[in-house]
Structures are given as C-alpha cells and as structure tokens.
Design a protein that fits this description.
- The complex is a heterodimer.
- Chain A is an alpha/beta fold.
- Chain A folds into two domains: 132 residues, 3-Layer(aba) Sandwich (Peroxisomal Thiolase, Chain A, domain 1), CATH 3.40.47; 231 residues, Peroxisomal Thiolase, Chain A, domain 1 (3-Layer(aba) Sandwich).
- In chain A, 36% of the residues lie in helices and 19% in strands.
- In chain A, the strands form two sheets. In chain A, strands 3-2-4-7-1-8-12-11-9-10 form a ten-stranded mixed β-sheet, with helices on both faces. Chain A has a two-stranded antiparallel sheet with strand order 5-6.
- In chain A, α7 crosses α10.
- Chain A is globular, with a radius of gyration of 19 Å.
- By secondary structure, chain B is mostly beta strands.
- Chain B has one domain: OB fold (Dihydrolipoamide Acetyltransferase, E2P) (Beta Barrel).
- Chain B is 8% helix and 43% strand.
- Chain B has two helices and eight strands.
- Chain B has a five-stranded antiparallel β-sheet. Chain B has a three-stranded antiparallel β-sheet with strand order 2-1-3.
- The longest helix of chain B has 6 residues.
- Classes of the chains: A alpha/beta, B mainly beta.
- At the A-B interface, α5, α6 and β5 of A face β4, β5, β6 and β8 of B.
C-alpha cells in the first residue's frame, strides 16, 4: 500500500443555510477543496451522506455532486454509515489512493437537515427500527441511558457533565465556521429544556446544514501540490451492535476502542503521542465515553478530567478544538470530514485563535448511531 | 405504510415474546441466525417469562411525532430473567420509582397508530412489580 496525504480542504459554514440546497453546499465545499489543492481534475470521488433521501428526497447524490463540482464523467460513489458517513468516505478514498487505483481522489460529506419536517424521525433510522425506535426511544434517549448508567457506576455529577458542552462552546467561540460560536454558562446548561433525562438541550448537538471535502493523493506526489501535506498515518474502522441494549456494558462503546486500536497500531503511536483530538460529542456523555475508549483517560475518569480542565488548552490533551459537534454543528454526513479538516488546519498551523501549540499528531473519531460504527483517523504534519 | 405484511412477520416477538436461546447461553428477542459473540448456530426457541430488571433508563420529554401524546414517558433497558436484553417503555408508574435495579414485567399494549385511518400497532411495554 502507498502512503496517503491530504493536500486540499474545503467546507461551508455550518448552520441553518436556508439559501443553499444540498448541491449548493457540496459544490461550495468541493470546489474550495479542489482550489485549495491546486488541482483541476479528480480521478474519482466518494460522498458521505446519512440520509439525503429522507432529508431532501434526493438520492443518487454521488452523481449529482460529481457533476456540480465540474467532474462529470469520473467514478463517484456514495457511502453511508449513519453519523460516521463522512469518515467512511475518507477511508474509501484512502483505500483507493493507497491501492494505486487512483491518484487524486476527493472525499466529501454533506447533510441538508433543516429542509425536513421531522428530523428526529430521520436520525432515529440510525438506531434499531424494530427494537428501539418502535418502542418510542429517541436518539437522545439512547445516549441518556448511557449517561444514567455511567453516572450511577462512576459517580459523575450533572454539574461535571455540563462542563463538556461548556468547554466545547468555549473552543467553538473562536471558530468562524461554527453554527453556535459563543460561550455558554453552567446555568444555561443546567436549566436548558429537558430532552431525555438526564440530558438537556445543551447536552445535545444541533440540527445543522453543511458540507465538507478533502482531497487525497499519494504522499510521494503531495509536494507537487502543497508545502504542507498532512499524512494519514493511521486509520481504523469498526462496527458494533445496532441496538444499545446489545452493548455488553452500557458505559462503553466497543466500536470506538476497536477502531482506535487499529489506527494506533497502523500509525505506531499511543494515546500519549496525540496532541489534540476531534471526537464525536453528539451528546455530552459521548465525549466522556469516547475519551476513555481512545485511551486518553482511564475508565470512569474522563468526565471528572474534562471538568477539571484536562481536555482543553494547557491540559493533558485538547479535545474538540473546533468546538466539537455541539458548538460547530453536526451536519451528519459532513461531520467526519469536517473533523479531519480541523485536524489539517491545526497541523498546518492555520487554526488561528484555536491553534494547539506545537501540534504534530492529531486524531479524529467519528461515530455512527449509538456505537453501531466508528472510524478513527490519525494525522501527522510532515 | 399500510402494508400489513411488514407487521405480520413481527408478531412472534411483539405479541408472544418468542426468543432464541443459543447453546452458548446467549438469549435474543431479535431473530438471529448466528450468535454474534461465539459464532454458534445452535439454538432452541423459547418464550420469555416477561420478568426482568432495569439496567438503565431515561425519561423522554421530546419524542418522535408518533409518540407525542404520551410524552413525557420513561424508557428503560431491561434484562429479562432468561438473559435477553430489550428496550421498553415503562408505564402505569410514578417516574421516581423507575430506577436501576427495579423489577419489571412485560405486558401487551397498544404502541402507536399510523395516522387517523392507519393500522394500530401493538407490542410489549413494562410495568413495575
């Protein structure tokens, strides 16, 4: 297999993009990535989207998007793994470049969520339809049950858990692409409207429109296009049970650990080598559990560590410098790609006020459903 | 969504709690062909007694549209005495009595209706015992 680098990035602002359709958004992100890489022709592309059909009634979007970024004629495929669709698209592009089948390959992600009436119904399709959605559990409800079990087992308090979104909003306040680029107070989190006990609105990532795209090429050719190529040093993907109740331990998400172990092994690094991480904080409790599965903190310790400032600038590791899904926004299919874009900006030294000092190795962790899938990438400045 | 065959094939587990017990001891209400942990394909058909224990729970305040008249309502993950794990709505209870370790029994109830003239859907819910 050939080594693979990222040579171009592009994304829309995340938010309620009423003036942009799904193809407008993807075209903006894709064309920015192509321009950023300084190329004009792709060999092929992959598009991650969870549910363009239910959200916008447009399927077959791999073809639509190739056409609307000026690449009519190339092979293009859509890939789907619920909220991990974006990083599965990057993994697909990686495999194509690594195998030698293509040289210049785009991986993008997109979701147009604000056009739908009942978005919670769409998100619930990432859960087990017959054994979860049918009985009336919602997506926040699944993570709420993880939170209930975790708080009971490890004694994490409601106030400590609130520090996850507070930290992420503090980071996101410096992100011009973020949907909600402002700080929030403890009072705001604790008194937000109830969604699914113990989670309140401020524990939940928002409904977001957005698109993101990156361009991959063989590492040996990367310097033809950029002075700052970012190497994909390791990656791992894994599946887990579709239903939360099939997790052997409700305070763990096995797919994250499986994906991380594969990525660490391939990269030849350990959690201590990671300078910053973008993790899938779809709900506050998700960041706590994934930080443990990724090996940054011991079992039952991540919640208190984050509350004590160990996951921000000056702490053990900066988690979610972009603001995470909570502040930056979570356009489902675009999220995995946007996490990688944040990592590239950090490693290029282009993250502005969010810059993590001396960032050399970054990790991204994207997750589908309540742990039905997860993808981890480890990126390195070279 | 008025096609009844898609409900017909769910009758066994929804109405009669028909489950499988693999020779590894794994018990599942969702029909499987292979034990996801051991790879065993040997099982016997069993019926769940319906009694079990709450492993975790939540109170849903913002439901999907089909359940909007019921909110707020408790949802729990339970393990039945046979070892099957399932997610259920807990009904006819004081919310403060829904807690980890509480004992429950599955009962037959209406789950939802598909619009004003659609099919009525039935299945299992849980009461505290």
């Amino acid at each position: 297999m050939r080594d693979v680098a990222i040579i171009g990035i592009g994304m829309t602002k995340f938010g309620e993009l009423w003036d942009q359709s799904i193809r407008d958004m993807f075209a903006e992100a894709g064309l920015k990535a192509i321009e950023n890489a300084g190329i004009d022709k792709l060999d092929s592309m992959y598009v991650g989207a969870m549910s363009s059909g239910l959200y916008t009634e447009q399927e077959h979007i791999a073809s639509v998007m190739a056409d609307y970024i000026g690449q009519r004629g190339i092979p293009s495929a859509r890939v789907e793994s619920a909220c991990a669709s974006g990083s599965i698209a990057v993994r697909s592009a990686y495999m194509e470049v690594a195998s030698g089948m293509g040289d210049i390959v785009l991986a993008g992600g997109v979701e147009k969520m604000w056009d739908a009436d009942d978005g919670s119904m769409v998100l619930a399709t990432a859960a087990d339809q017959e054994f979860e959605a049918y009985v009336g559990v919602t997506f926040p409800g699944l993570y709420a049950m993880m939170a209930t079990a975790y708080m009971d087992k490890y004694g994490l308090t409601r106030e400590e858990l609130a520090q996850v979104p507070i930290k992420n909003h503090r980071h996101g306040a410096n992100n011009p692409k973020a949907q909600y680029p402002f700080e929030i107070s403890l009072d705001t989190v604790l008194n937000a409207s109830r969604v699914a006990d113990p989670l309140r609105l401020m524990d939940c990532s928002p409904i977001t429109d957005g698109a993101a795209a990156v361009i991959l090429c063989p590492l040996e050719r990367a310097h033809e296009f950029t002075d700052k190529p970012i190497k994909i040093r390791g990656l791992g993907a894994a599946t887990g049970p579709i239903a939360l109740h099939d997790h052997s331990d409700l305070t763990k998400i096995d797919a994250v650990k499986l994906a991380a172990d594969r990525a660490y092994k391939m990269a030849g690094v350990t959690p201590d080598d990671i300078d910053f991480a973008e993790v899938h904080d779809c709900f506050s409790i998700a960041e706590v559990i994934t930080a443990e599965e990724l090996g940054f903190f011991g079992r039952g310790k991540a919640g208190k560590a984050i509350a004590e400032g160990q996951a921000t600038y000056g702490g053990k590791i900066v988690i979610n410098p972009s603001g995470g899904l909570k502040s930056k926004g979570h356009p489902v299919g675009a999220t995995g790609v946007a996490q990688i874009i944040e990592a590239v900006e950090q490693l290029r030294g282009e993250a502005g006020k969010r810059q993590v000092e001396n960032a050399k190795i970054g990790l991204t962790q994207n997750m589908g459903g309540s742990g039905g899938s997860s993808v981890v990438h480890i990126l390195e400045a070279i | 969504m008025a096609n009844s065959q898609r409900y017909h094939r769910e009758i066994g587990h929804r109405y009669r709690l028909e489950a499988q017990k693999f020779d590894s001891g794994y018990v599942t209400l969702a029909r499987r062909y292979i034990d996801p942990t051991t790879g065993s394909k040997n099982y016997e058909d069993i019926r769940l007694s319906g009694e079990g224990t709450i492993l975790s729970f939540t109170i849903i305040y913002i439901p999907a549209e089909a359940y909007s008249l019921e909110a707020p309502y408790p949802i729990a993950i339970i393990e039945t005495d046979e070892g099957a794990r399932l997610t259920v709505q807990v009904i006819d209870c004081d919310f403060k009595d829904v807690k980890i370790g509480a004992r429950v029994k599955l009962v037959f109830r209406k789950i939802r209706e598909e619009g004003h003239s659609g099919i009525l859907n039935y299945g299992y819910k849980a009461i505290l015992i």
